[in-house]
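Internal tracking record. Fields below are filled automatically when a chain is submitted to the structure queue. Please do not edit lines marked as system-generated. If the sequence contains nonstandard residues, flag them in the REMARKS field before resubmitting.
Queue: standard
Priority: normal
Entity type: single polypeptide chain
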Amino acid sequence: MSNNYDHYTMVIQWSEEDNAYIVTVPELPGCITHGSTYEEAVSQGRDAIESWIDARRASGRTIPAPGSRVLVVQ
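SYSTEM-GENERATED OUTPUT FOLLOWS
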């Protein structure tokens, strides 16, 4: 199976409360992580997507297809 990890949408938002960038992946329920810098958040997001998909694949469950990519800058 091909590696489509980079085709999933990462939503990255700064959280004053957490003093970190929070990363969510809308196509993958419960796939969430964070980073203290934007770059770290992107890296952690990629790792979270890979781990989420690997765990889902290992359990024999369906893996949602990547959605469309949207960039929102705030």
